[in-house]
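Please, structure for the following, as tokens.
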Amino acid sequence: MNLKKVLTVYKKELIETFRDKKTLILAILVPLLIYPLLGFGASELISIGIARVESQVSRVGSKTLLSDELLDLIKEDERLEFIEADNLFRKLEEGGIDAYLESSLEEGTEEVNIYYDGAIERSNSACSRLWLLLNDYKRLRQEDELTQRGLDTKVLDIVEVKGENIASSERMGGVFLGGIIPLLLIVMIAMGAIYPAIDLIAGEKERGTLETILTVPIKRSELIFGKYLTVTTVAILVGALNLLSMLLVYSLASFQLKEVMGGVDLVLSPGVGILLFLLLIPLVLFVSAIIMSVSLFAKNFKDAQNFLSPVLILLMAPAYIAMMPGVEMNFILSVIPIVNISLLFKEIFIQNFNIEYIFLVFVSNTLYSFLGIYLFARLFKTESILFAEGKGYKFSMNRKDLKGRKFLDIGESLLLTSGILFLFIYLGTLLQLRYELF
């Protein structure tokens, strides 16, 4: 290959790509605006919501006669308002009250039940307040009973249980970031690669300029790498801006929500950010190669969007593994693409820097990226794929329209596989429930 020709193709395609408004919006405006809007907007809404709930007075009633001590505790609490009313169950359903109590005495033991509507926020808040109040009431009754029997109330504190979290505030914040950031990054990187890939391949086909470009006196491998470098550049830019924007926004949002979040800190060091970016590069190369390979099968922009929508879902699915409880990094998971980067990010966010896993993830993703590039190059050099027109399906019962053949093409295979999965998931689940096949 002639590096100068590759760079010429790269420069030409990159300039044309950044002339596209959709690419500029996706690559620059989205990460710079959407995360601040979501981050600060969410923090403000949470703060406002918490303040609103705390300022509301919970209206509570009682279906039975309460003891004087409990009634006094309720009336002394400024957050509670005791309401006397009939048919409290209907009142609770209609929103006239937020919760009500029912007290009973069996064999010397007083039992108090809280009735609330868990689907309503005010009712949940009332339940929480009553629960704390009843714990105080329980302690008060126990102390009174011990005093009447001439016993020291200190016997209630004979066992004192305490818990201490040894994790730092940064590690606690990493638990939150490790679940959501890998998923968002993978989605945004894929989206950043999709639009230029569609335009550089399917768009060229639709405009009829691909044949013209292939007549230019350069090798096809030089054209391939020029286009591939363009897509990866945009995807890397999108990944870097998204990572930077997310880390800044979550760090600033953690300062606003410090009182609400307690011992959770979402601030990460610049060194961690650089490490995350370096680990993203092989992933970007792999994802870009996969997206460009799929784009080759499309004959126009619409086809490419249809083909790449399932690919985006398939790329997102492994990222959810990092959000699953109990799943930890091991040797096997460290070499599974996308799964490995999601779990590794989770480990890094909780400040668990395992050099062995970092090395395995980086090397395995680098190998996958080379395989992806090789696959894309082979497909690009296959003219039956590059210039395939694509055909629809004729739903006809005429024998003359039925053509005998031994193998299904890619589109038919995907359609058949999707149909089988649909039946397996939905029909199989219904049959399992119907016949109790557990």
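The radius of gyration is 31 Å. The mean pLDDT is 80.
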